[in-house]
Structures are given as C-alpha cells and as structure tokens.
Design a protein that fits this description.
The chain has two domains: about 150 residues, no CATH class; about 170 residues, Histidine kinase-like ATPase, C-terminal domain (Heat Shock Protein 90). It has eleven helices and seven strands.
Length: about 350
C-alpha cells in the first residue's frame, strides 16, 4: 500500500477508510469460512463470533497496512535476496505484534479472560502469520507492478514529448532552410543567372536549373525523415554551393575534404547545410572580397565529425539567435543523440559531431 501525503488530508482519510474496509472484508470472509467449515464456530453466536474476527482483522490488518509501506520504501533498493529476507522476517514480526494487539482487543472487549490470553495468542498467531504473509507478498508484488507501469508510462510520455519537440525543431529547420532558398533575391539572382547563361552557356544553364530543382525536391522529400545519409546531405550542399558560386562568382571559393567511407552515415537533415549557410551569411555575403569555406568530414572512434571553417570574423556561442540556424541545430542534436551529439565553436570553425550508426 502507498504512503499518503500528509498535506492532503482528504486523500489521507480516504486511504484510512479503504484500509478499514479491506480489513472488514477479510474479517467477514474469515468468519463465514469458519462458520461453514468449523462445527465449534457454528455453535457460537454469529454476532459474537463476527466481532472477534473483526477485531483480529482490523488490528492485525492496520498494523500491517501502516507498517509495510514504510518498510518497503526503505528496503526496496537492497539486493533482491536480502530485501526479501528482511521483508518476510518483518511480516512475521508484524503478524506477531498484530496478534498480540488483537488478543488484547478480545480481552478488553470481554470476549476472553486474562487466563486465556496466551493460549489464544498461540492458537491465533499461525493463522495470522499465514494471512499476513499472503497479503504482504501480494501487496508488495502489486505495488511493484504498479510502480513499474507508472514508471514505464512516464517514460513513454517523456519520450513522446521529446519526439514532438524534435519534430518541431526539424520542421523549424526545414522551414528556415526552405525560406532561405525561396527568398525573392535568392530566386531572382538564381533565375537571372540561368537566363543569362541560356544563350551563351545552355548546358550550364540546364545544370543550374537542375541543381535548383534538386534543392527544392530535397526540402519536400525529407519532410517525414528525422535523419538522412551523409551522401544525400553532401549532394544538397554541393548543389547549394554551386548555385551560390554562380551568384557570387570568384568571390566564393570552397573545398571539400571527404571521407567517402562515411557516405552512408546518418545525420539530421540540413545539419551540414546549416553550417554552410551560416558561413555564407557571415563570411562571404557581407564582404566585398567574398570568402572561402572549407568542409572536412571524418569518421573515427564511433563518431562522424564534420568541420566547416571560413575566413570570416568568427563568432561565439553567445551570437546564436534563438530559434534559428545553429541554435535550432544544437537543440535537435541534444534531442536526437543526447550527450553523444555536439556542436562546438572555435573562432570561425564550427564542428558537428554525431554518433555513427545511430538513427532517431
């Protein structure tokens, strides 16, 4: 049975009432069984015999009901065999003490005389011990199962909340990334570049249009996925950089140092893309001379490490904007991988680390 919070008096009285009612039911059942199978009991007055059984049931039952929860709270962390030995020995003691109180109750009620006290105790303690052991073990098992069910339910709710948060962050990241591609000036410059290439470089214009199409297709295809392969992400980044290089011309240079054995590793959609966009926004676009972006991908010690470095002014963790870009990516990593995923900053270098082979 549970301990009841003393700050909730209504709940406390309901708990006491349930204990008394449960004990009364046990006393009534024992009385009926004795009357059914014990000829000596049938020769007694039913009311008198019922009163005796109720005294037994209430005194022994209340002793057990308000002692076992206190005991269980203090011994459940012990090793299994030790815990059960302590619990069973305590139940035997509870049965003996409860029987002493019950026989004393019979004495006070005038049902037995003082000379009958110890013979009555000896005759009753065995039955009381057996019932206390049965009820005590059953209560312990039931409470243990109830606790496990509640713990499992709480874990499932927590996991559901984390999944919902992760999905929300993923959607925010996709929306942010898609919006960055659909900005009027981005589309205008990309389409302008394509139009200017149609006459003199029709093949280049066709390739640029294909890259734009793949970029938008990726945004649609990855909507229901919490992770994508590194290969898919690299294609997205390559298309994005090629489009931006057409837009910025010689102002943008980039390099990719790739561990091609890691192409099937999983990572969150737009993880690498977010890092590259950040460099484009702060290191390349604002500067007349443009900038350089270097991407390095390595797999080692069970982790996939992606490093993006630019020649911009750099920034710190305090420069994160709530709900956008690197801030959203960092939260997604925490939800998907816990401490196994990380995002670290070193001047103008951003390093992303995710566990290899772990999917959300």
């Amino acid at each position: 049975m549970r301990w009841v919070n003393s700050e909730q008096p209504g709940l406390c009285w309901r708990h006491v009432g349930m204990v008394l009612l449960f004990n009364a039911a046990i006393g009534l059942v024992l009385c009926l069984l004795n009357f059914a199978y014990n000829p000596a009991a049938r020769s007694s007055e039913f009311g008198f015999y019922l009163l005796a059984n109720m005294i037994y049931a209430q005194l022994i039952g209340c002793t057990a009901a308000f002692t076992m929860p206190w005991l269980a709270v203090r011994i459940w962390r012990l090793p299994g065999p030790v815990m059960w030995i302590v619990y069973l020995l305590t139940l035997v003691i509870i049965a003996a003490v409860g029987t002493l109180l019950a026989v004393a109750g019979l004495l006070v009620a005038g049902i037995i005389s003082s000379n009958q006290y110890w013979p009555q105790f000896v005759g009753s303690v065995r039955t009381a011990t057996l019932i206390t052991l049965i009820v005590g073990i059953a209560s312990f098992v039931i409470e243990t199962l109830r606790h496990r069910v509640e713990h499992t339910t709480l874990q499932l709710k927590q996991q559901q909340l984390e999944r919902e948060r992760a999905q929300k962050l993923v959607l925010e990241a996709r929306l942010s990334s898609l919006q960055s591609r659909l900005q009027p000036h981005f589309l205008f410059n990309t389409i302008n570049s394509i139009l200017s290439m149609i006459r003199d470089e029709p093949k280049g214009a066709e390739e640029m249009l294909q890259r734009l199409s793949r970029l938008l297709r990726y945004a649609l295809d990855s909507q229901e996925r919490s992770t994508v392969s590194l290969g898919e992400e690299m294609k997205l980044v390559s298309d994005y950089l090629e489009i931006e290089r057409t837009r910025f011309g010689q102002r943008l240079t980039f390099s990719i140092d790739m561990d091609y054995g890691a192409m099937n590793c999983e990572l969150p959609p737009y993880a690498l893309q977010t890092l590259v966009e950040n460099s484009m926004k702060y290191a390349v676009a604002p500067r007349r001379e443009g900038g350089r972006i270097a991407i390095s991908v390595q797999r080692e010690n069970g982790s996939l490490t992606i490093t993006v470095t630019d020649d911009g002014p750099g920034f710190s963790h305090d420069d994160f904007t709530e709900g956008h870009g690197l801030d959203t990516l960092e939260k997604r990593l925490a939800l998907l991988y816990g401490e196994a995923g990380s995002l670290s900053l070193e001047g103008s270098t951003v390093r992303l680390r995710v566990p290899v082979g772990v999917t959300a």
